[in-house]
Amino acid sequence: MGDGMTDALIVIDVQNDFCPGGALAVDGGDEIVPGINRLIRDFPIRVFTQDWHPAGHSSFASSHPGKAPLEMVDMDYGPQVLWPDHCVQGTDGAAFHEDLMTDPADLILRKGFRPEIDSYSAFFENDHRTSTGLEGYLRSRGATRLTFVGLATDFCVGWSAMDAARLGFAVTVRLDLCRAIDADGSLDTALAGMRDAGATLIG
């Protein structure tokens, strides 16, 4: 829980396509919404991220003939999981879950909008070099302690938390307010990676 002006809550990708019925549904993705709504009141700095892909994005399996969702390909920036088309700009799937209280957001950060590269982390594109600008925003607000919630634990939440810890923020991940895809052991890998990076996992 945030208890000072340096605390920021980072709500990752609680969007329709990641909730039940969506194009890339995470089991129980909608279950975390009430808890996030309660938690957000306790933080002075509140950031929401939104996956925001153009149609035909390079991370979509449909952009790679003969490939299926969850297959891997090598991109210029490294290995990339291929996904079903999801969170396409301006679609209902890209919209935040209708019950999520987004009005308290200080910043809504859209990511994954560059057609040629995916972006799991709220801080960097998947090349680990191209910044989203979030670090600068948080520094300018004086944030030092970040709490992460949202979807999915093993991809966008995990990568964001690891990057935040490497950037020197004190990081907490509320696992009770996250849900995972867990493809081929990806959840265990992400949990270990977050711990190794110095993140505190609770819930």
Automatic annotation (TrEMBL):
It holds the Pfam family Isochorismatase. InterPro entries: Isochorismatase-like_dom, Isochorismatase-like_sf, Isochorismatase_Nicotinamidase. It is an enzyme of class 3 (hydrolase). Coiled coil: none annotated. Belongs to the isochorismatase family. It comes from Maritimibacter alkaliphilus HTCC2654. SUPFAM superfamilies: Isochorismatase-like hydrolases (SSF52499). Residues 8-202 form the Isochorismatase-like domain. GO terms for molecular function: metal ion binding; nicotinamidase activity. Its EC number is 3.5.1.19. This is Nicotinamidase. Pathway: Cofactor biosynthesis; nicotinate biosynthesis; nicotinate from nicotinamide: step 1/1. It comes from the Bacteria. One of its GO terms (biological process) is pyridine nucleotide biosynthetic process. Keywords: Hydrolase, Metal-binding, Pyridine nucleotide biosynthesis. Transmembrane segments: none annotated. PANTHER family: LD05707P, PYRAZINAMIDASE/NICOTINAMIDASE.
